[in-house]
Amino acid sequence: MIEADTLFTGGCLVTMNDQREVLDRGAVAVSGGRIVAVGEAAALADQVRAAKVIDCTDQIILPGLVDVHAHAGHGLIKSIGMHNGNRWEEICGEVYTQASDTAFWYAEARLAALERLRFGVSTGVSLLGGGDTIMRTDDPAYATAHCEGVMSVGTRSVVAVGPTRAPHPIDYAHYKGGSRTTYPVRFEQQFETCQHIFEAWHGKADDTIRIAMLYPVLRDEHERDMAPEDYAAACAQSQAVRQFAKDNSAVFTQDGHWRGSVRRADELGLLGPQSLLSHCIDLHEDEIALIAETDTKVAHNPSANASIMGRCPAIEMMAQGATVALGSDATAPDRSADMFRHMQQAMHYHRRHFQDADVLPIGKTLEMCTIGGARALGMEADIGSLEVGKRADVITVDLRRAHLFPPNMPLHRLVCFANGNDVSNVMVGGAMVLEDGRATQVHEDEILADAARQCAVMLERIGGGQADMALPDDFWGREATPA
Predict the structure, then answer these.
(1) In sequence order, which residues have a C-beta less than 8 Å from that of residue 131 and are 6 or more positions away?
(2) What are the phi and psi torsion angles at 315 (to 5°)?
(3) How many of the other CB atoms lie within 10 Å of CB of 477?
(4) Dist. CA 155–CA 321, nearest whole Å
(5) Coil, strand or helix: which one is 180?
(6) Cis before 155? omega within 30
(7) What's the pTM value of the predicted model, to 2 decimals?
(8) According to the model, what pLDDT value does residue 339 have?
(9) Whole-number mean pLDDT of the chain?
(10) Quick one: DSSP state of residue 145?
């Protein structure tokens, strides 16, 4: 007899193991934070004695979803300024360097983690800042606030930290006792901060917190437009950050590959199995081959603005053997952390391009935010599938919803029709952190109230933001088509 803490039983079990095994009435037993048995519900009923049994009749049991690209900080800014050209990104830059304190980062981390939790995202990457270059790494306190916020909710976070792109110094501001002090920050200070964050947090809280290293992407326009000495410094800095990640077996990530940047990353020695490149739009044929040959991982964000500006050749990369996983790029400025939405968007995105409804099969899409997402983060030995010995990251999706009926073809309904609000239970590392649709470790109303409070403080610091939140003149439609 197997002694277990928890037994999920009676639901359609989607294992995502190597055989992609699906059991119509399956069960998963958990003990000590690990999966100890997987099989038919009837068989495990005789083999497992569990302290808690969760009846999953009319539900799907599957691994926790993995979101390989999002931004910490964005959750309190969301759509503010999105209609005014580059204003939304300007706000992010101002807030992350001049108008945020540790209370902001703690409140945002809790809000974003709660959103992920309710959507069944048990593991997510969060870049500690926004745009492709503005990181809040002038002081370790901000990353600490983020990590503590995520820990309180109970999800996993891979926190990506790194310096801003050269040239330096960059002006930052911090708050103490209600007063603001502005000071210049150089690359060396940011790099030391990142190393401190790594040493303090990587692998902590039973490995629910990991630290990834980041350096902003260097594209054709940077080599063309930057002063030669600044461009040379940026190249050297990117190599130093990448080397630190390599030496410490950590993920190295970059946000916004485009315009020859993969070629340049290869020349700088930035590619490889531990490298995760986001967006990757309009790649050249040789760049697709480079990604596959070096086993570099790709974070595909089909709902992001970058995927409107150019196309990510995810299908072509996967055809050459590359690992391409799904990211939400959340929460900014018009998209959430709902990975069901992004799975559906991914299928339509590539099918429209090829004008072929069979492109990107449903099961492959699910793989991209389960075992594929885990593989992109180097975590496939621990998460991403429901197999004996792996960490118990388990979610259930309630199929007794009008949009998910009638009760047939559950995998099709899961990927094509479900949304994050259909998630009923979430277990992370053996801990039930969402039960019957409600968070168990935090009071949701307190998180929402604190988020509203810190957003108001942030808006006051940047001058109120009323114009940035007003409906634009063309909100209800255009009189003419775009040029």
Answers:
(1) 89, 92, 93
(2) -65, -45
(3) 5
(4) 30
(5) strand
(6) no
(7) 0.97
(8) 98
(9) 96
(10) H
Q: Which residues pair with 391 in a beta bridge?
A: 34
Amino acid (1-letter code) at residue 435 = E
Tokens of 436: 């019957």
- Structure token digits, residue 396: 């259930």
- Looking from the CA of 393 toward its CB, the CA atoms found within 13 Å total 29
Please calculate the CA angle 377-334-122 and round it to the nearest 5 degrees. 30
Cis peptide leading into 302, omega within 30 of 0?
Answer: no
For residues 183 and 212, give the distance between their C-alpha atoms in angstroms, rounded to a whole number: 26
Q: CA distances (Å), 170 to each of 98, 133, 142, in order? A: 11, 11, 17
Residue 454: Cβ within 10 Å count = 21
Q: Which two tokens stand for residue 390?
A: 């792996």
For Cα atoms 251, 255, 259, give the angle at the middle one, nearest 5 degrees: 125
Handedness of CA 162, 375, 16, 388 (dihedral sign): negative
**Per-run averaged pLDDT (10 residues), the chain, 483 residues:** 97 98 98 98 96 98 98 94 90 94 98 98 95 89 98 98 96 89 97 98 97 96 95 98 98 95 97 98 97 98 95 98 97 92 98 97 98 98 98 98 95 98 98 98 98 96 87 81 64
With beta carbons less than 8 A apart as the criterion, state whether 183 and 171 touch.
yes
> Could you tell me how many helices (H) and strands (E) the chain has, helices first?
18, 21
The identity of residue 56, as a single letter, is C
| Residue type for position 22 | V
Answer yes or no: are the C-beta atoms of 75 and 115 closer than 8 Å. Answer: yes
Say what the pLDDT of residue 131 is.
66
Break the chain down into helix, strand, coil percent, rounded to 5.
Answer: 40, 25, 35
The pLDDT assigned to 84 comes to: 86
Written as one letter, the residue type at 357 is A
